[in-house]
Amino acid sequence: MASSKYKTLKQVERNIRQKHLASKLSPSHLEWNLNAPNKVIFSDGSVCPGTCIECVETPCMKFLGTEISLQKLTQFPSDHDTDVCPTKAISWPYESASPVIDDSLCVGCGLCAARCPTKAIFFKDNGSASVNNIPNKYFIENSTDSDNRKTQDTVTLFQNLKWKNPILQDSEQTLDILFKKYLDESSSLFGNEPNLLIRNLLITVGVKSAIRRTGDTNIRMDIVLEDIAHNLNGIGEIEFGIDILNTPRNTLDNIAVFTSRYKIDNLIPIVFPLVLPNQRSEYWQVMKDIKNVLKIKIRTVTLGALLLLLWNQAKISLGDLNNFYSDADNFSIRQALENLLHRKINISDGYLGIIEPQK
Amino acid sequence: MLRFPNPGSHIDSFIKIYKELFDALSEAPFFTLDDISRTLVERNLATSSGFMGQEALTRSTREDRSRDPLYNQSKMYAELFRMLGWFQSLPDSSLKYRMTFLGAHAISAYNDIKPLFRESVLGIAFPNEALDNKGNYILRPFSTILRSMKCLDGIICRDEIIVGPLNLSDDRNPKLFMQMISEIKALRGNFGRLQKALATISKNRKISLNTMYNYTRFPLAVLTWCGWTTKERNSTAYKKSIVFHQLTSAGEKQLGEIETNLDLRSIDFKKLPQDQKIKLARFCFYSMMARSGFDLSPVTKELTDTAKNLFPSLFKKQLPKGFYFSPFQEFDSEINDQIFPEMKTQQDEGVTATPNNIPSTAPASHRANSNLYSDVVLEHSAGNISITQGDQDLHSNLISIYNKNKSIEASVAFYLDKLQAANKSEFYPLVSALFRLLGFNCEHSRAGVNYQRWDALIVHPEESIPIEIKSPGEEQNISVKAVRQALENKIILLSRKPFPTKQTTTSLVVGYYMPNDRSEVSYLIEDIYKSFKVKIGIIDFQTLLTLVYKALINKQYPNFKDVVNLYGFIKI
Question: In angstroms, what separates the C-alpha of A343 from chain B's closest C-alpha?
Fold first, then answer.
């Protein structure tokens, strides 16, 4: 940004004391933990807690501009909100040594934890995340310029590390806590920023996406997705409220606009609901009608499905969402999800409407 | 009522837009609303009529600028940025703007913009010399809202903000402030009383309720974004569940700061000699910067000198802890040039203004694709169409209206007016009956029958036509929403086959008035046809009534084939 013309004051800098992993150590893998810091296991068997190294880029808090912008459909007027946390629960106050997470705002989605390079963010049993910044002998404070380079080396080292256990277990108890915060109408977090939550989950599991700016009523599609490598585009409706019956027709509107006005084909249309509609909902029958008449399959990917992908650190592409087609003949998205996770899911049939309709 | 424009109540987007505008326009000595619109479009921050990029700008631009959506959106942004002191108008025109020194700090605040934004909203005070003030308010709105909440058990709802703080004539008069608080306390417990108070303001100020609600969108978004309030439902204050805004601990802390600092307004500077005015204004600005997290070491000497040499004579009784006064929100650009001479020199070195290169084009409604008007030919029928027993009353009523009004046009106008508030239970069966009077076998769908998603259906042995109806009670003008539903009706009819139809047969929308933005509906109908080969036809109630009267009076009936092929707006 150009501000050269104005000789402005400078904001007081945070007192950042970056850290790096002691050079002799060679980590072998990570273990996600609950109610205690995650574990970094070294090749000699020693263990240290995942610790905040106070990185300047703060990937736990912010996406880079390139992460939230599209490569092909650059004229899509997307939301430029770079916040990782959809409920703005994570911040880095000046007086704090590291980012802090506000329990009352954290819904426990796991986005910040997944993006932290040194896995310093773990979950407490109340479902809120916490940053471990307790000093230890394994992570050493930088004192020279060459130490700053070591911080970057530490980030690279952790990027390629294998992990044990998901970020959060796909247990009904875990999902219960999150959904309670998100579904409770009396909660101030009820339905908070659904578009941002879905976009951030998609980007973090590997699907390039951009959302419509909040309040822009002229662009009707909620989210646009792309996969340049496979020449695929996606278009989506995000609906966490009661308008689920409108989503099939809104999706057709989106498809019509994109194919007719912008000549974009290879479109994968997706509805992202909070939960799957009940079996008796007309939603399912209309999905089948659309497939029958227009030969268009509109996929349905729930918030819960994306959370499970994130918690298991799945890396997927837009094409992988192709298998999430369901309609009145088959309501379940279990198979599609298990194929991506390469294992069975520990969520019972119909639980919260995450994988099958509740009723 | 104090009015806040509402170009969008998402504060992160709002700040992002300022950053983009600053990046594009700060070097120019001035810029206009067209420059703002063009920047918004170039940076993919603006859309119009479902189009994005340059196409959005072209489609939005109207000869009558007051009807140009993008121009109006830019104007609203400009008004808010002026309120925040991040834009200032030039002395020769309130529609020529420049960035300010305060706005430049919003760009420099890359560590954390929140404190500066908080200070900027708290800096809004009326009357001031920076804005074209309307109304006679003496009011610092955001601190007044926070103060009011504190006095009202820490909570306030939207309607109370309208009735109370945003309507307070003088916040510096403790008696008036406490009177306002007492009035709100007296309203609590009775929702009807609150609504009555709201209606009185609406009537006296000649502002509709919806417009008043819109004026609160920006302030409410600010309160939440700043962390001063959270939204909670409360069922006790008015004995019904209402969204209230609750003061947070951060809000209380902010209020504490407000109360310990001295609240100065531009009028307080009037009596000061010029040199004192400049020194005090600069001190206030830098106090604001300190609270916004900026390092004041480059100006420490100046501030120390001011405190030492000026304050003992100005504040004889007690030296204030700090000040609430924001020069860029209180003084006009000429005075600020005197207060901050270093800024003026920098601006004079700026490049020339960007020319206005946005072509003015005809209103979008005039540019609608002419192909989207379909002619329906009227043909004379040899015999009478048989009228069913159930439609006899309607038939008699229409004839009686004609006999009184003596012309088809007058009869149509009379009936149209009579139905202007009709709800769906009245309107849907009526539309079906009118189609029957035209000789079509039209069935009104019963509620709750799943496969009948259409509101009515013209049943035909080969080409049945689904009809999506919108009563004036639902929407006065046909919208894109109805078009989407018409597409879905057609898909369901083709898929489930409860009645015979063809892919080429139209799917109808019948509504009270033609769309407000006819072009937007035209483009969607066109997009749907190009993508899915489904025709959507639009009939407004006036045209339907005209068709019926021509049938009843002149024995001229619409050609069924023309109706079957209707694509776009009906023309007779």
Answer: 37
Which regions in chain B score pLDDT beneath 50? 345, 349-368, 370
Name the β-bridge partners of B262: B323
Do B413 and B539 lie in one domain? The reply is yes
Tokens of B560: 């069924």
Give the model confidence (pLDDT) of B422-440 as tens digits.
Answer: 999 999 999 999 999 999 9
Q: Do A286 and B488 touch (CB under 8 A)?
A: yes
- In sequence order, what DSSP letters do the residues of B249-297 get, joined into one string? HHHHHHHHHHHHSEE--GGGGTTS-HHHHHHHHHHHHHHHHHHTTB--G
Given its phi and psi angles, is residue A238 left (phi above 0), alpha (psi -120 to 50 degrees) or beta?
A: beta
| Amino acid letter, residue B413 | A
Could you read off the pLDDT of A138-158 as tens digits, one per residue? Answer: 999 998 878 888 898 899 888
**Reported ipTM:** 0.88
* Residues 393-452 in B contacting A (C-alpha not used; CB under 8 Å): 450
Give, in words, the CATH class of A172-353: alpha beta
By residue count, chain B amounts to 572
User: Which is nearest to B232 in space by CA: B243, B223, B220?
Assistant: B243
Nearest to B422 by CA among B479, B458, B475: B475
Single residue among B264, B281, B299 that ends a domain in this structure: B264
- Give residues 25 to 44 of B whose Cβ lies within 8 Å of A: 26-27, 44
3-state secondary structure of B572: coil
Q: What's the pTM?
A: 0.78
- C-alpha span between B343 and A94 (Å, rounded): 29
Of the residues A15, A71, A80, A278, the best mutation for testing chain B's interface (the one with the most B CB atoms within 10 Å of its CB) is A80
C-beta atoms of B8 and A215 within 8 A: yes
Which CATH number goes with the domain that contains B475?
A: 3.40.91.30
Q: Are residues B201 and B295 in the same domain?
A: no
